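--- STAGE predict ---
source: upstream dedup step, 1 unique chain passed
mode: sequence only
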Amino acid sequence: MPTIVRHNPSGKHYILLGAGYSQWATARPNRFFGDLFPLQSEGQARLVCLCDAQGKIEWSYADRITVIAVDDQSPQAALANFQTRPPIEDKSK
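--- STAGE serialize ---
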């Protein structure tokens, strides 16, 4: 069964195909100091792969997506049988 999602900015519904995560970093020479003090930028993106009714594949940022149905159930109904437990402590710190 597909996972149905809504693209919040447009209101369109899609089938969720998968998710991806990317990071990047770039550096270019500084105008005055060249490679000694390069201008750097970096970032990350959480993306989801979506399919529309015509089969067209699109990518969207994950924070713009809301899950509507999982296996023909609302997310609330799908999680109804699971108990909420306290978070697990990270003992590696």
